[in-house]
Amino acid sequence: MLAIFKKEIHQFFSSITGYVAIILFLLANGLLLFVFPSTSLLDYGYANLDPLFELAPMIYLLLIPAITMRSLADEFKSGTMELLSTKPLSWWQIVMGKFTAGITVVFISLIPTLVYYIAIRQLSADPGNLDNGGITGSYIGLFLLGAVFTAIGVWSSSLTANAVVAFLTAIFTCYIFYYGFDALSKVPTFTGGADYYLQMAGIRFHYASISRGVIDSRDIVYFLSVIALMLYLTRLSLQRRIWD
User: Fold this and answer.
1) How would residue 177 be classed by pLDDT, with cut points 50, 70 and 90?
2) Which string of DSSP letters, residue by residue, matches the chain?
């Protein structure tokens, strides 16, 4: 697993692609938070990072599938997956190596956003009024969201040798998990009955809950359960494709 992790990280940062992906994430956030008037923190009138945590999931919806689309698809395309399967590695070690490399990149992309927190703190008339608990919870929620998107991206990459197909599949699945259940709950047919449970089935409900600064075990269990499910489906997909 460690060898696969190192290989993935080295491949990601050995080319300009990895750096461009992270720079674009930071640039998009920077423009939306400090330049574009409709979303600028400077026009809010009070210091908070809520816009960052509202906008970042939408950016991750494109960024993370781009990061993970080649993780397994390229292995099938180049024929190295068959070679990996003959090594003394379990299916879980292969899957976890790819997944942990992906969430490491997500974590690295989050670190520079602390500059936004420092900027808001410096601009605030009273830094003590900042909701540090809510900001901390939002960062935890954003990391868990990134981990779920990474697991979905790795699963999507296990389905095909075409990286573009993997990318589109990951975007669609991430969108359904983040927006789909929430949108479905607003259909009049489900109002007053199943709407609450449909919301709970989606990521957005639990992400918003953690972003309030209260770390509820139910939200943590939800994120970990979705991650475990997607990684299990990835393992099944790899086994099926190799054995077939």
Assistant:
1) very high
2) -HHHHHHHHHHHHSSHHHHHHHHHHHHHHHHHHHTSTTT-GGGSSS---HHHHHHHHHHHHHHHHHHHTTTTHHHHHHTHHHHHHHSS--HHHHHHHHHHHHHHHHHHHHGGGHHHHHHHHHH-S-GGGS-HHHHHHHHHHHHHHHHHHHHHHHHHHHS-S-HHHHHHHHHHHHHIIIIIHHHHHTSGGGTTTTHHHHHHHSHHHHHHHHHTT---HHHHHHHHHHHHHHHHHHHHHHHHHHH-
Please give the structure tokens belonging to residue 215: 């770390």
Domain count, the chain: 1
Question: 174: which 2 tokens?
Answer: 């991430």
Please give the Cα distance from 45 to 90 (Å, whole number).
Answer: 54
Rounded to whole angstroms, how far apart are CA atoms 175 and 200?
15
- The reported pTM is 0.90
Of 140 and 75, more confident: 140
Which residue is listed with tokens 């750096």?
Answer: 19
Total length of the chain: 244
| pLDDT tens-digit series, residues 89-110 | 787 888 999 999 999 988 988 8
User: Mean pLDDT for the chain?
Assistant: 83
Domain that holds residue 58: 2-243
